[in-house]
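Hi! If you just cloned this repository, the fastest way to understand the data is to look at a raw example. We've pasted two of them here, unedited. The first protein comes first, obviously.
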Amino acid sequence: MECCNCRFGNHYLELSGIRAYGRHGVLPFEKKQKQPFSVDLTVWLDSDKCCTTDDVADTLDYSILSNKVADIIENTSFNLIETLADKIARSILTMSHVAAVRVSLTKEMPPVKENIGRVKVTLSIQNGDGHGVVR
């Protein structure tokens, strides 16, 4: 996976299928009733030191990362999934060893009349630049 316009190289972690239930949406019942969400992440690391040390302290602990994502989904409430995805991305950027992140957030059962199985938003940001884009 290429990290365009990004000085961080090709060392990254991918986590897929992080699942949690949250109260996000514009309809009143969406604030009361938990709904299923899933998240896929690509997290670019600021160093490849872990490849030579074989020490988890030199990389990102993905159990902590997945717990952080689930906690945000479960303990916040936003109208827009775009806002939720941004909150997740910015929270991940505060973690040690993180240079950039791509978040794909899926609302599994959006409450719309049309028969839509899922709705997904994807965004990417990088450290050192409040709105950088990783492609």
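Ok, and the second one:
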Amino acid sequence: MKKFTKFIGLSFVAAMLLVSNAYATEVPDRGPIPFEVFDANKDGAITEDEHTKAREERLKQAQSQNQRMMRNVENAPDFKSLDTDGDGKVTKLELLEGQNKQMQENRANKGPRNK
């Protein structure tokens, strides 16, 4: 069951990234930030500076729209946790895996839903 859930999660993130390719590199106000938004210079990798700037832009955008604070924002993966091979760059696969892992952890921490 865990493998199936992980597969579904990765499939969802991959689908989101494919859809995001059709749009400009604007920071979305909801959901995972697409790789193309993080990779500002379009070199195929995300640097720590690019990662920081995209996350700061997302927070500024939410504040300027007077949105309530985003859920789990404090739990968002930092650059070092995404850079699993430690080369100072995050690939598209590393980002997908990190975002999927974070979504799974966020869901696990919600507990059972009351119906």
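That's it. A detail worth noticing about the second one: The chain is about 55% helix and 0% strand.
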